[in-house]
Amino acid sequence: MALDGITISCMAHELQNKLAGGRIAKIAQPEADELLLTVKTREGSFRLLLSAGASLPLIYLTEKNKTSPLTAPNFCMLLRKHISGGRILSVTQPTLERILRFEIEHLDEMGDLCRKYLIVEIMGKHSNIIFCTDQDQIIDSIKHVSAQMSSVREVLPGREYFIPDTQEKADPLSITEEAFTALVGRKALKLSKALYTSLTGLSPVAAEEICARASLDSDRAASSCGREALVHLYRTFARYLEPLRSGEYEPVIYYDGKTPVEFSCLPLTVYEHFRRERFPSVSEMLEQYYAEKNTLTRIRQKSTDLRRIVQTALERNVKKYDLQAKQLKDTEKREKYRVWGELINTYGYGVEQGSNSFEALNYYTGETVTIPLDPQIPVQENAKKYFDKYGKLKRTCEAVTKLLEETAAEIEHLRSVQNALDIALLEEDLVQIREELMESGYIRKRNPGSRRPKITSRPFHYISGDGYHMYVGKNNLQNDELTFQTARGNDWWFHAKGAPGSHVIVQSNGEELPDRTFEEAARLAAYYSSNRGADKVEIDYVEKKHVKKPNGSKPGFVVYYTNYSMMIDSDISGIRQV
Predict the structure, then answer these.
(1) Which of 166 and 63 is assigned the larger pLDDT?
(2) Which residues contact 504 (CB under 8 A, 6 or more apart)?
(3) Span between the terminal Cα atoms of the chain, in Å
(4) Long-range contacts of 212-216 (CB under 8 A, 24+ apart)
(5) What is the value of pTM for the model shown?
(6) Among candidate residues 176, 208, 213, the one with its CA nearest the CA of residue 195
(7) How far apart are CA 436 and CA 574, in angstroms?
(8) If you ran DSSP here, which 8-state letter would residue 511 be given?
(9) How many angstroms separate the CA atoms of 574 and 569, rounded?
């Protein structure tokens, strides 16, 4: 969920409780569009991060410090001059806007008490941090917005500060039932969109949640809803926002396995099938969510070149496979030519020279067949011609069958590399994948004498509920190492059936594994495969001694001829990772 008005409301309540009465001890501007305030209160010191970044505007309390530039930017120096040592009187949110307003009391140059406002607007690319007088006159802002940049509002020193009302949205906390039904009911948009385009601070996720709680189809046109449905929607909406009035909220992140999917300060029933992690504060929730999201985004960016190489090679091999499969299909008629050649040798002596065809009994099937002939050559030469065609197609079939197997193995290998890129969490995980692509010839090998990078990536390590160690390969090289170097003969090996995925090894210590450990290992194999997220994934498992690696096969490729199977989900939320 974006930082919508609901989250900002909960954040305002949290900051009011923690910072009101505190004094601003330090002001830093580590980035061009970011402030870090240190506030000292009776309960201790707090660091408040305020970011107006266009791609990721944020506001939360954090324990982490950031390095500031040697020379403070002008906006930072201005704030230090006016409000350094100032006392935060209140932190408020106008209506349910994505805005926080810090009221700060300080001493001016004459030693008189006066008040200023530091206003943080969390509005995507229009985010800003604005410093105003108590008369709402702009002193300065972290981003200047001129008339050439915006026809709606100038954000420049000396201009009046106001909140632009360009979308004519209503205040969700004060709207009446009559106004709600009239405003939402007149829109021809789908119901969820009508909600978040009519009311301030509602995100699409919150609108979907309100529709779900009201048991109304969110894709239904709002204008087609009767008054009874709209009244029911209003009452559901009012109950949903009721905790904001009392400051009761429950910060939570919803996870799909280990991937953060959504965060919210109010329960989301539409995400109830995901694992939930609760947090004591909105700040901790936001800090963890965006830290994890940033990690995934950074790895995605770092792996872009590898993904492009793999995807290009995969597309090329899929096209090659399709052409080879078509070529192989064309050889299926080879047996027909062999039979025709035999029938000409058997019955062709009675056929007149110059005939275009003749009929003969196929002694293999008992059916009469018509065999085309070339009238320009002797009848018996037609037999030789068909035998030659048969021989050529037979040789083609044998060659293409081998090529088809090689191409299929290449496709399987490339898809396994794609899966390894999907589960990579650290930059060192990408180093080993790059090495594998070099060995496979997809990336040019480094110059002789160049130092090989140190491999620091290690397999995932989990502990089952019964105390058994479980290891998961992050890529094909680790899969081979786990299966054929780390694992012992009586350890158990798991893998998603017929899908690219990681090898999972459970160290049995020579003991018989409990059923729960088998299920947990199978869940790991399902989660770290291309079938992650499916309701049921088929998993093959067998003792490691039955797993073999054919000579010359691709990394990660193994064979086994006796195994057990189970159907399992890919939820690993209850498995402890070391």
Answers:
(1) 63
(2) 470, 471, 472, 473, 493, 494, 495, 521, 524, 525, 528
(3) 30
(4) 212/269, 212/270, 213/239, 213/240, 213/269, 216/191
(5) 0.67
(6) 208
(7) 32
(8) S
(9) 12
HEC letters along 229-292: HHHHHHHHHHHHHHHHHHCCCCCEEEEECCEEEEEECCCCHHHCCCEEEECCCHHHHHHHHHHH
Which segments of 20-128 does DSSP mark as H helices, in order? 74-83
CB neighbour list of residue 349: distance below 8 Å, 6 or more residues apart: 379
Q: Is the pLDDT of residue 38 over 70?
A: yes
Query: What is the rounded distance in angstroms from the CA atom of residue 539 to the CA atom of residue 498?
Result: 9
Q: Which two tokens stand for residue 450?
A: 């160049």
Q: Which residues 6+ apart lie within 8 Å of 310 measured at CB?
A: 414, 417, 418, 421, 437, 442
pLDDT at 449: 66
Q: Which residue has the tokens 């009452």?
A: 235
Residue 94: φ, ψ to 5°: -70, 125
Residues 550 and 557: their CA atoms lie apart, in Å, by 8
Residue partners of 261: CB distance under 8 A and separation at least 6: 254, 255, 271, 274
The mean pLDDT of 496-500, rounded to a whole number, is 93
Query: Closest by alpha carbon to 43, among 22, 69, 71?
Result: 22
Q: How far apart (Å, rounded) are the C-alpha atoms in residues 527 and 459? A: 14
SS3 at position 119: strand
Smallest Cα–Cα separation from 131: which of 99, 101, 98? 101
Rounded mean pLDDT, 215-238: 92
Quote the radius of gyration of the chain (alpha carbons, Å): 35
What does each C-alpha distance from 204 to 5, 6, 236, 508, 527 come to in angstroms? 12, 12, 16, 49, 29
DSSP states of 547-558: -B--TTPPTT--
> What residues have CB less than 8 Å from 168, skipping those under 6 apart?
none
* CA–CA dist 203, 194 (Å, integer): 11
Place of tokens 């140190």: 454
Of 164, 441, 405, 203, give the one whose Cα is nearest residue 309. Answer: 441
Top-confidence residue, 296 or 186: 186
Going by the DSSP 8-state scheme, the letter that residue 454 receives in this structure is P
Count of other CB atoms within 10 angstroms of residue 422: 16
Beta strand pairing call for 44-51 and 58-62: antiparallel
Mean model confidence pLDDT for the chain: 91
For residue 122, which of 172, 52, 60 has the smallest C-alpha distance? 52
| Tokens representing residue 458 in the block | 């290690």
pLDDT tens readout for residues 183-201 = 999 988 999 999 999 999 8
What's the pLDDT score for residue 456? 82
Average pLDDT over residues 387-406: 93
Q: Quick one: tokens of 103?
A: 């009221």
Task: Report whether 473 contacts 463 (CB < 8 A).
Answer: no
- Output the CA–CA distances (angstroms, integers) from residue 195 to 172, 178, 181, 216, 233, in the order listed: 10, 15, 10, 12, 10
Residue 512 CB neighbour total at 10 angstroms: 7
Q: Who's near 378: CB < 8 A, 6+ residues apart? A: 353
Four-CA torsion 302, 307, 310, 312, nearest 10 degrees: -130
